[in-house]
Amino acid sequence: MEQTNQQIAEDKRLQREAYVFQIYELVKKIDGWPYLQDDPEAYRTHMENYYYFMVRGIDNPLGYIHKSKVDLCIPDNGWNVDQKNRTATLGGALGFENYTYGELSECLGVTVVYPKHTSPPIPKDTSRSTVYDVNGKVAVDIISPATAIFGVRTFEVHLIISIKLPDYKQKLLIRGLSNKEERQQNPNLAHVRQPDLSVRGIVQRGETPMECALRLLEEQINIHLDEEVKNSVTPCGILTYHMAGTEKEQTASQPKTHYVYELSVSEIKFNSELVKGKGEGLFLVETDWVFKTLKEEQFPPSVTMTWADYFMRNGFIEIQHEEYLDLYARLHRNLAHSFRILR
């Protein structure tokens, strides 16, 4: 017997409800770091396994180092480790009192890449993030692979491009490989092994988030940045959350900040502006495909958080959904509370 339109609509509604619950469970898992305000006892117990990452001259901690990693922080690389107070201070060792910002940054890189000695220098092309204290003061530069080890807050731009079609519908532009089979057949293409957003990357020191978004559009999509495109890049808010662990480092601390943008362009403009050769690993999908891919946990964790925000912001997850308020709270944590020493 054929389904009526009402039955089809109800089936879609139930499917959407199931997707929303699964997205909520994913967000809860990703935003897994305990919060002092929610459960002080659980927070204290959790923090007993971590050392506070300090830099000489800055009062507040910049991150958290798990006790299994603190042996990286040796005096030869400028570290002073206080076992009693559980602090690991860069620049705190004897002989490092007058080290400059740049020299301390080099020491921090050496700690991870060459943990047993202080040379050779870190390769110049290694990507780096700038670490700021709670007041926004630049503290030190860190090579990107080390951000999770030292538990520092990272700042990224995440941008989603929607393509307007002639029938008034739209599709979303995704980077990556579209399914598991493709990714398994292309194991050497590490940078496109998982489906992603349209554009994302680290905000470099000295550039605004909008400047970063425009730079990444050129670098990753290679769309010509005429005035129409620049004026169409729309800020959509800031996401803040705290991941506890990564796939490789289960004890890692990852407080994250995303500056989220959207860009809507016509299909004609997209096809004419996209430079051939840069289009590899790009494909267009509908929102149901993104929901399904989220459910299957194929997106990287930080990308999952941005897609969850996208669906809330665009009305796919609505206030009447039971999970809405907690979802919103988990995507907008007050990370300033995380960076203080608890006694």
TrEMBL record:
This is Nudix hydrolase domain-containing protein. It comes from the Eukaryota.
